[in-house]
Amino acid sequence: MATLREASPASIATGVVALVLLGTAAVTQPGLFVDNAIGGLVYGMQLVMVALGLALILGLMGVVNFAHGALFMLGAYFSYQVVAAWGLPFWVALFVVPLAVGVVGVAMEVTVLRPLYSQQPVIGLLATFGLTLMAEEATRSVWGAAPLSFDVPAVLATSTDLGVTQVGTFRLFAVGVSVLTVLAVYLLITRSEFGLTVRAGVQDGEMTEFLGANLPVRFTAMFFLGAAIAGLGGVLRGAEFGMGLSMAQQFVILAFVVVVVGGVGSLFGSVVAGVLIGEAQFLTPTVLSSLAMVTGVEALAVPGVRSIVPYVVMIAVLLVRPRGLFGEEGFLE
User: I need a labelling partner for 289 at 20 to 30 A (CA). Which of 59, 121, 175, 196 fits?
Assistant: First the structure.
C-alpha cells in the first residue's frame, strides 16, 4: 500500500483550518452536524460499494467499465422485483440479487469485453457505454420510467437514538454491510490463494499461467465479484431511496471520481476516497451554514454546493498527488 508523502506546512495548515470549521459546525448545530456526518458516511459507503468493484476491474484488466453503473442500477431494480413484485423477504434479495447481477457481469465480460482486452482502452469505454444505454432501455421496458421503491423490514424501518439526533436503523445497517463487504474483499485479495494468484497474474501473466493458473477463469471470477458488489450496493441504495433510470450514469461518474481520488488500483484508496467524498458532500453545506450563522454573512450558505463538492475534492487531490491519495504502479501496491 502506498504511503502519503511527508506533510507540508501548507497541508498541515489546511488540516487545521478544516478541523476549526468542522468544530464550529459541531458546536453551533450539533444535531444537524451529527445527522449529516452519518448521512455522509452512509452515502460514502454506497460510493465505496460502486467504486470497489470498478477499482477491481480497472486495476486488474485495465478496462474502463462505464457499464459498472448499470450493474449498480440493476441491483436496485432486481431487488424491487424480488421484494415488491414477487413478495419475497428483503433478506432474500440481499443475498440473491448480488449473485444475479454477478451473472450479468460475467455475461458482459465474456461476450463483449474479453475480445476487447487487446484493443485500445477507448474501444472498451465506448462498448461499455453502449452496454449502459442498452441496460437503461431494457430496464425502462420492463419496469417503466417512473421512480420505484419498496418497503424494508420493520426491524430496519425504525430509528436509533444517538443522543443529539435520531438516525434511521437501515442507514446503520447499510454501513455495517458495506464495512463487512470491504473487509471480505480485502481478505480475499490479500490472504487467499485465489487473490494472490490474480495479483501475480497482473504482474506477470505468462509466468503465472506457466505455473498452472487459469487466469481467464480467475479474471472472470473477479469480474463476477466486482459486479456482485455493485449489485449489493444497488440493493442497499434502492431499499433506502428507491430507484430510477438515472442511477447508472449518476453513480458511475461518481465512482470514477472516487477511484481517481483514491488512486487507480488501490482498494484502500477507493475506500478512503469514498468516505472522504461522502462526508465532504454532506458536511460542506453544514459548515457553510454554520459560518453564515456565526459571521452573519448569509452569502456563505451557497445553495446547491453539495453537487460540485466531489469534483472540487478531485481537483484539489490531483493538484497535490496526480496519482491520487494511494495510487501507485501495479495492483494493490
Answer: 175
Grade residue 164 by pLDDT with cuts at 50, 70 and 90: low
Say if residue 210's pLDDT is above 70. Answer: no
For residue 160, the surrounding DSSP H or E stretch is strand 159-161
Could you count the other beta carbons within 10 Å of the beta carbon of residue 211? Answer: 11
169 in a domain, yes or no?
Answer: yes
Percent composition of the chain: helix, strand, coil (DSSP 3-state, to 5): 75, 0, 20
Convert the pLDDT of each residue in 279-329 to its tens digit: 999 988 888 888 888 787 777 777 778 889 999 999 988 888 888 888 765
Q: What is the mean pLDDT of residues 22-36?
A: 77
CB 42 within 8 A of CB 171: yes
Confidence grade of residue 330 (pLDDT, cut at 50, 70, 90): very low
Using the predicted structure, report yes or no on whether residue 226 has a pLDDT greater than 80: yes
Tell which residue, 33, 54, 110, 87, has the closest CA to residue 231: 54
Whether residue 327 lies inside any domain: the answer is no
Q: Say if 188 falls within a structural domain.
A: yes
**73/35 Cα distance (integer angstroms):** 26
What's residue 98's pLDDT? 96
Nearest to 258 by CA among 31, 58, 34: 58
Domain extent at residue 89: 10-320
Tens of pLDDT along 58-84? 766 666 788 888 999 999 999 999 999
331 residue type, one letter: F
Phi/psi for 45 (5° steps) reads: -70, -30
Report whether 45 contacts 108 (CB < 8 A).
no
CA distance 274 to 49: 9
Give the three cell numbers for residue 125: 469505454
